[in-house]
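chain below, 488 aa
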Amino acid sequence: MTSPNASPERPVPAAATNVAASEGPTIEAEGELIPLYQAHKKIYPRSVTGLFARWRWGLVFLTQLVFYGLPWLEWGQRQAILFDLEARRFYIFGLVLYPQDFIFLTGLLVISAMALFLFTAVAGRQWCGYACPQTVYTEIFLWIEKRIEGDRSARMRLDAEPMSMTKAMRKTAKQVVWIAVALWTGFTFVGYFTPIHELAGLFARFEMGPWETFWVFFYGFATYGNAGFMREQVCKYMCPYARFQSAMFDKDTLIVSYDAARGEPRGPRSKKADPKALGLGACVDCTLCVQVCPTGIDIRKGLQYECISCAACIDVCDTVMDKVGYPRGLIRYSTQHAMSEGWSRAEVIRHMLRPRVLVYLAILTTVVVAVLGGLALRTPFKVDIVRDRGSLARIVSGGKIENVYRLQLMNASEQPHRYEISVTGLPGLSVSTENVFSVEATQARWVVVNLQLPYESATPGSHPVEFQIKSLDSTAKVAEKSVFLVPR
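prediction:
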């Protein structure tokens, strides 16, 4: 029996129970269970055609042609693009870079950062919408999915129906193709670090080394997981760009915008109906802009960090406007100022050239010119000088003081060269050993050089000297400083 003093239990709504069961941890508030985490709903992007869709697929083809094709391109007797970590050399067409050329990598990173700032300040997340690897591979994987499982409605029906032979075959076929593309992507990635023709032979014979095997499968798994399953979750929760982009946005940044003044109030109507008579705006509330969005947002709610500026909603909205006979541009690339002030296209472009954009452009131009100038003026060989610590200054036969040095001659060109070594800085100082050395193409060589100075030609202590190394096959010349020790 129930005690008369006991308070009756309030039943928990079934809907709340179901939500709690599906969404994980919950808290109880006034008898109702409230989920702590938002449930993830699978997004089924609708296919779309139009100007921006063609641009997006054009960049998909371009980026993948470059990525998959460059490792197979030959330059002379070697791979055109090869980052040989074992030999510590980077081959970029006719350019050979060494670890000592780290300054150029720094310049490249600065250029990338400034370009990101500039493009984001001008046009928002255009990189995300058109050329980001996450977007590109998601487009490829979605295309495969559509070819095997059908369009949006067919995929939704297939996922909702119970498992059958047809469903299992379609799902298996999709996974097989996804895995093949992912592994080929991982193989190509490793081909930038191991000569791809050699890697292909090892792959065919199942003789790849542990590191090559690891990176092929690691990069392939990352492609498979990110583009096949995580998709918009990477853009919304993992990518830091979506989080700090607001620091680079302002009201003159070009973004995908919904013209609320023209579109509201929205609502369905027949094609022949007069929207003004019905008190409606141009938006027919078809929700196609939501259905085509790869991140599942409603652009009509305004600027949202999940928007990747892919313009799929622009293409589909323009299609709808054409069908109902309204002017295009209900959703378009514009700025917040332009939407509120009613600016023309010329005014929008003029306001893009604001001070922050000009500063970014000036810095970017300066760094690009500096890097290109440095590469153009770069000496085709390098020299490192190390004093031989095992042999200090000493007096040798003939009453001369001798210092021993070790020089690393690095030939950064793709032809063998001979180099002549001389020294200046003290009267009577000379090279007492062989001073002409040959170095093969793209190779480095350590040589020992002895310097001798007549006794009492200099006071005891450390004296600066300068090594002059010149190529006998060209006009290239390098000067490196060191010191000559005179014992007391």
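Residues 381-486 form a domain with the Immunoglobulin-like fold (CATH 2.60.40.10). The two ends are 109 Å apart (CA to CA).
thats it, cya
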